[in-house]
Design goal:
Layout lengths: L7 E6 L5 H10 L5 E5 L4 H4 L10 E4 L4 E4 L1 H11 L11 H26 L3 H28 L12 H16 L8 H11 L5 H7 L6
């Protein structure tokens, strides 16, 4: 095996959340990275070091490049970890579709996680109502797109980075609301198949809650 060209350090909290999308990119490509997990107690001390005052952020080659924002990091890694695989899409159209599905899943992630972690009971009730109204509509729409592409991937005929985003988001939504996929059999099957990809199966088994489907 050739020597790894670049070094990577991911800074994120000691949770899955948004950082897990980035971790999964490295795991899928079998790329070594430093996983700097920040406790909530340590966050006030670490926050001034974060370029935009938030996590995740990725440090490449000891600071030669620092990238913030989850999807920006994922897009960079999709293009750079193994460029010959066109993990971000082989054409401009496929690349745009990857962005579209990644953004759509992250919108759903934000609605679900925002409701789950809201502290104010009045605001929480409103956010939970929005989530309960939104997730069936969005999952039904996404299932339609998945079926139109053959049912195995959202773009092209192979795993691309948007599929890893979809997998992470579906897993976290399932943790928030068990059996959330029971009325969406095509997405449910896609989710189980993605969890069992050879490149990530062991990582998922050892680091994620078991699927409820």
């Amino acid at each position: 095996m050739s020597k790894q060209k670049h070094s990577y350090t991911l800074h994120y909290f000691d949770t899955r959340g948004r950082g897990e999308l980035i971790r999964l990119m490295f795991v899928y490509h079998n790329v070594t990275f430093e996983d700097h997990r920040i406790s909530m107690d340590d966050w006030p001390t670490c926050k001034p070091e974060a370029p935009m005052g938030q996590v995740p952020y990725l440090v490449v080659d000891d600071g030669k490049l620092i990238i913030c924002q989850t999807l920006s990091i994922c897009r960079y890694l999709a293009k750079s970890l193994r460029p010959e695989d066109y993990f971000g899409g082989e054409t401009k159209s496929d690349s745009a579709k990857c962005d579209m599905y990644a953004d759509t899943f992250m919108d759903l992630f934000s609605i679900g996680v925002g409701a789950a972690h809201e502290k104010d009971p009045i605001i929480k009730e409103k956010k939970e109502t929005i989530f309960e109204n939104q997730y069936p509509v969005r999952l039904r729409m996404l299932e339609h797109h998945l079926k139109n592409n053959g049912g195995h991937h959202f773009v092209s005929r192979k795993v691309l980075w948007c599929d890893l985003v979809a997998l992470c988001v579906l897993s976290i939504l399932e943790e928030i609301k068990p059996n959330i996929l029971q009325d969406f059999p095509d997405i449910q099957l896609y989710y189980i198949n993605m969890r069992n990809l050879p490149e990530i199966k062991d990582y998922v088994k050892n680091n994620w809650p078991p699927a409820t489907v």
